[in-house]
Structures are given as C-alpha cells and as structure tokens.
Amino acid sequence: MATSTNYGWAEPDNSSLVKNGASDIRTLGNAIDASVWNIGYGQAGKNKLINGAMTIDQRNNGATSTSSGVFTVDRFEFNASQATKFTWGQNYGGVTPPAGFSKYLGFKTTTAVTIGAGDYFFFGQKIEGQNVADLAFGTASAKTITLSFYVYSSLTGTFGGALGNSAGTRSYPFSYTISAANTWERKSITIAGDTSGTWLTTNGIGLKLWLGLGVGSTFSGTAGAWEAADRFSSTGATSVVGTLNATFYITGSMIEVGSTATPFQTATGTVQGELAACQRYYWRVQNAANYTSYANGSGESATTAGITVVNPVSMRVGPTSVDYSTLAIYDGVTITAVTAVSLQQVSSTTTKVNATVTAGAVATRTYALINNASSSGYLGFGAEL
Amino acid sequence: MKMDKVTFVKVETLEGVQEHAIIDRGNGEFTSMLKSTYEAQQAEQSTPIVIDEAETI
C-alpha cells in the first residue's frame, strides 16, 4: 500500500481497492478530511475577532469590575441598561479554562433582574470594516461565516446573540444551547452572509457581534434570519441576569469564513501580534515603579505642559480618549502633580496631550511626564470603534 | 450604585479653546476626551452619569 507524499495518507493498491471497494475510499476520504480540518491550526488571519482567547487585558490587568458601557478584556465591550448587575473580569470565577487556553472572560450576576422590554445586558466585539471586507456582505457574493466559542455557565438552556451592521439596520439573531451546567462546551453557529444592507469596509464598524446575557423584546429577534432591525439577542433566549449569582464564562471565540468551525486560532497567531492588533484601538503604558517616565515635552504656561507620545502601532484613527492616573511633570528638580490630561493634537501615529497642573510650570522648560510617587500611574489612549 | 463623575473643562490650545469631558472613574483614575466625543458616546449608552459645573483649566 502506497502513502501520499506530504500527509502520508494510505492509498489502496489495486487488489485492495477491488477487494474492499467503497470501504477503502471512505478510509482515504476520512484521512483527507481530517488533514484539511486540522490545517486550521496555526492559520493566522482566519479569525475575524481580535483577542478571541481573552488574553489581552490592558485596561484591567485581570481586575474585576461592575461597570457597563466599558471595555472588559481588550476589544470586548459590555453594555447594560441597568448599572452594576454583573461583576466581570478576566478569569473571574477561578475555573480552569478549556484545554489549550489560559484565559477566559467571566460574568456573574450581582442582582437578579426581571428584564423589561427595553432592557439589555450584552457583550461582544465591533470588527473594523477593513477586516471583514472579504466577507462581501451587502452583495450577492456575501460569504457564509461560522461563529464558534467555548462557553461555561451555571445555567443551561437556549441562549442568544446577534450579528449586526454599523448603522443598526441589519441584524441576524442566533441561538445556541448550553447542555450541561458548569462545563466547558464548544458552540458553533453558521450564518449565511447578508446580501442586503450597507456594510462598511472602511476603518469604521464593519460587523458587530453581540452575545446576550438578558435582552428584552425590543432588542430581540427571531433566530436564524436576517432582518432590518437592531438586535442584541434572539427571542426566547435565557436571561442570565434573571438569576442571582449566575455565571457565564467564554473564551476561544472566532468568526471565520466557511460553514464549519475549524480549530481555534487567534487573529494574529502570536501573543505580541494579538497585543499589537489590540493597540490599534487602545494602548496603555503603566510603569510599575515610582517616578518613572512616560514621555517628554515642554512647558507652555504656568499651568500647562505639552507632552508628545509616539503610539506603539498605527492606531485606527487619532486617539479620541485618554485614560490616566497619578501623574506628575518633572523638570529635573521639581515634581508637580498633574490635575488633568487632555488630548490636543492627535494622529494615528503620534499624540500630543496637555498635562495641566495647578501652578508652577514654566513655559519653554523641558518636562518629563512621570508616575507621581506611585506605581499605579498610567497613561492610555483609545481609538475604539 | 457606582456612578461616574464627569466634569467639563475648557482648555486653551494653539488652535483656540476646546471643551473636554473629564470622567472620574474613582480611585484616582480618569478618562478625558473632547466633549463632543463624550456626548456622542452617551447617545449610544444609558450609563448613569452625574454632571458637574463647567470650569476652565
């Protein structure tokens, strides 16, 4: 019996083929099928979701929060119509991630809520248009895609989510089933691409993926069909927020072209690539030592120093927000606490901020922007979708 | 219930006066953005906020 050159598939010889017929062909076919399926390993670029393994957490660094309208781990935002009903965080809940993963995003309800028609609790990711242009949504050539993820919940039943476009005028609600409580299960949902609607292929929002944790009827639709509406989940889905202390954990999320969920791969294939991909939308520097420097600039008045930083990667657009804590300006002699930081001149590659102090800055004097007597200072810039 | 505290400030720049929103996240952590950006974000969310009086920095 011969074997194929590259994958070593067993090729039946003439006598075997005559003797075994279809059985030999099935054996060879299964070997080819397995090889093609496994090609998914290491195939960077197939996953449209950035940080699908939930490993990058620049804002929170593993800390928990009850905030909504914010980003959890990088790229995944959490939205809610009522505040503080969930605690969330990277690896929150302390369960062992599924094999092959080290991180997950965990949610747990703090209060049971009976949702009204207009209530919503959901999380997910907005994907940049340039990264989904190949899907050809909104055209007759729209491609079929498959969403897959690993999920672990204290609840069982039918759960929901939705895909949508930037304008909220096209949605595809979908449902999936969690069969066993407190057990990692891999789910996949195959969706025929939308041939209608407007789908951006620019640096704006190309595709939105939402997973519902409790969504009222106003934002829920019938699973399994495209519709001209803004949806976050499917009708009849389990409301996680409806149960006190309910848990919902997720990792290994992926959107890929095709009708089969192949083995998980991050969008970029490496941890550094994944971080850089996240930094296109948000980056943060946080030096873990007192008085360490972030960037330099010069005094512009008694209360202002202009500081210029170089973004570590080209951002989607010039930053639209700046996060900061516990900063000071330093001229080599005097440390002056910063009371506010504001964006001034922004581009995708460089960012100038004004660091405001109460008094004591000197125009034209050189200043370093530093941690102020703390290792908890930081500076972060957002250019989120 | 945790509520973000937001202050609107006017900042003099080389291009003129800009109005910024400074959001107090608690624990000495802040986020700053143009007021127009903040208002656009709020239009998409229902996160409760408390708005302080404007001041100039």
Q: Would you give an account of this structure?
A:
The complex is a heterodimer of chains A (385) and B (57). Chain A has 385 residues and is mostly beta strands. Chain A is built from three helices and 25 strands. In chain A, the strands form six sheets. Chain A has a seven-stranded antiparallel beta sheet with strand order 21-20-24-17-18-23-22, with no helix packed on it. Chain A has a six-stranded antiparallel beta sheet with strand order 3-4-7-12-9-10, with no helix packed on it. In chain A, strands 5-6-15-8-11 form a five-stranded antiparallel beta sheet, with no helix packed on it. In chain A, a hairpin with a 6-residue loop joins strand 9 and strand 10 (171-178). The longest helix of chain A has 17 residues, at 22-38. Chain A is globular, with a radius of gyration of 25 Å. The N and C termini of chain A lie far apart (56 Å). By secondary structure, chain B is an alpha/beta fold. Chain B has one helix at 35-44; strands at residues 4-13, 16-26, 29-34, 49-51, 55-56. In chain B, strands 1, 2, 3, 4 and 5 form a five-stranded mixed beta sheet that branches. In chain B, strand 1 (4-13) and strand 2 (16-26) form a beta hairpin. Chain B is flat. Mean pLDDT of chain B is 76; it is low at 47-53. At the A-B interface, strand 19 and strand 22 of A face strand 1, strand 2 and strand 3 of B.
